[in-house]
């Protein structure tokens, strides 16, 4: 069984009110996966600049393995502002390094050794990175227990119907929030207002193993072809919600790959995400009690 778990797409600096913090959903995902003892990789690109070198240095300091190319574009930045309850709003710079992730021989070898990958729509806004992500997904060997997780992660206007459709055809796990589900339903012409019905439609139409629906303070669901798991969102003092969804995906993925039942994996994901909301930034160190909930086979 291939063992490596990959977060693929944007690696960047979130410029928050209190200063800049390393960010990008794939890096957040890979970091939290590594906290559960898995061999993870960040796949992205940074510029040949001070910001890019600092990202590489931060990942090295966190002992986070990566396959990050240095390219002739500036390292990505995102201006993040927080509303009154700590929910982030993003201004994402364009024409940056992670828009230009090359498909290399080394990346092909990594794809052949990857057990699970998490990717989103944002890094597919540019032709170069979009093509690289699709080649990576298509290169991964089709083995039992493999996960291709599309954490849809709609940002600003950086998505198209074609990208969403191609991604859902290539994934076997879809993670989406309630607002994104409304947007996707409008794009694809799904009728009605019942979110659970729409989730079951997506699950069947794209032959998914699982669909994860997060609804903020209103809880979260995990749908499989035969079951549904619901968990309430814990009430915690929120520092900010940056990276909370990525930590949810990482914890859930790690738990499923370790053999946990869906409902138990869902519970752990909710608790990890709630903890991350109590911390500033996307990559806090998880408490030992949470990390030790997963026992790898």
Report on this structure:
It is a single chain. The protein is of the alpha/beta class. It has one domain (4-290): 3-Layer(aba) Sandwich (UDP-N-acetylmuramoyl-L-alanine:D-glutamate ligase), CATH 3.40.1190. The protein is 37% helix and 24% strand. The protein has helices spanning 25-35, 50-61, 105-112, 127-139, 161-170, 178-188, 195-205, 244-257, 262-277, 288-291, and strands spanning 4-8, 12-16, 19-23, 40-47, 66-71, 76-82, 88-92, 114-119, 147-151, 173-177, 210-214, 220-223, 228-231. A nine-stranded mixed β-sheet has the order 5-4-1-8-9-10-11-12-13, with helices on both faces. The protein has a four-stranded mixed β-sheet with strand order 3-2-6-7. Helix 2 (50-61) links the parallel strand 4 (40-47) and strand 5. Helix 1 crosses helix 8. It is globular. The model has no long low-confidence stretch (mean pLDDT 93).
- Write down the CATH class: Alpha Beta
Q: Assign the CATH superfamily.
A: Ribokinase
Helix fraction bin: 25-40%
Please state the CA-atom Rg, rounded to the nearest Å.
Answer: 18 Å
Q: What count of structural domains?
A: 1
Main β-sheet, spatial strand arrangement:
5-4-1-8-9-10-11-12-13
DSSP summary, beta strand count: 13
Computed structural class: alpha/beta
CATH architecture classification:
3-Layer(aba) Sandwich
**How widely separated are the two ends?**
12 Å
Low-confidence stretches: none
* Global geometry: globular
Largest sheet: 9 strands, mixed
What would the average pLDDT be, to the nearest integer?
93
The fraction of residues assigned to DSSP E strands is 15-25%
Number of helices: 10
Order of helices and strands: EEEHEHEEEHEHEHEHHEEEHHH
Instruction: Indicate the CATH topology.
Output: UDP-N-acetylmuramoyl-L-alanine:D-glutamate ligase
């Amino acid at each position: 069984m291939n063992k490596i778990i990959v977060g693929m797409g944007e690696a960047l600096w979130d410029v928050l009110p209190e200063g800049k913090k390393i960010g990008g959903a794939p890096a957040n995902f890979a970091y939290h996966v590594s906290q559960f003892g898995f061999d993870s990789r960040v796949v992205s690109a940074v510029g040949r600049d001070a910001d890019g070198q600092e990202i590489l240095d931060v990942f090295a300091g966190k002992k986070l393995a990566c396959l990050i190319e240095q390219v002739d574009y500036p390292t990505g930045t995102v201006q993040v502002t927080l509303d009154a309850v700590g929910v982030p709003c993003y201004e994402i710079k364009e024409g940056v390094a992670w828009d230009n992730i090359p498909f290399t021989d080394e990346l092909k070898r990594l794809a052949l050794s990857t057990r699970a990958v998490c990717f989103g729509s944002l890094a597919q806004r540019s032709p170069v990175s979009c093509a690289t992500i699709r080649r990576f997904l298509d290169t991964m060997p089709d083995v039992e227990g493999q996960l291709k997780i599309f954490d849809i992660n709609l940002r600003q206007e950086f998505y198209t119907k074609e990208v969403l459709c191609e991604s859902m055809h290539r994934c076997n796990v879809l993670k989406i929030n309630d607002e994104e589900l409304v947007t996707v339903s409008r794009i694809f012409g799904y009728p009605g207002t019942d979110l659970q019905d729409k989730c079951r439609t997506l699950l069947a139409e794209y032959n998914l193993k699982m669909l994860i629906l997060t609804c903020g303070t209103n809880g979260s669901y995990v749908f499989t072809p035969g079951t549904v798991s619901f968990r309430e969102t814990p009430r915690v003092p929120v520092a900010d919600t940056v990276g909370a969804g990525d930590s949810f995906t990482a914890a859930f993925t790690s738990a499923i790959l370790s053999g946990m039942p869906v409902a138990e994996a869902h519970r752990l994901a909710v608790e990890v995400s709630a903890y991350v909301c109590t911390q500033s930034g996307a990559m806090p160190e998880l408490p030992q009690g949470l990390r030790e909930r997963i026992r790898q086979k």
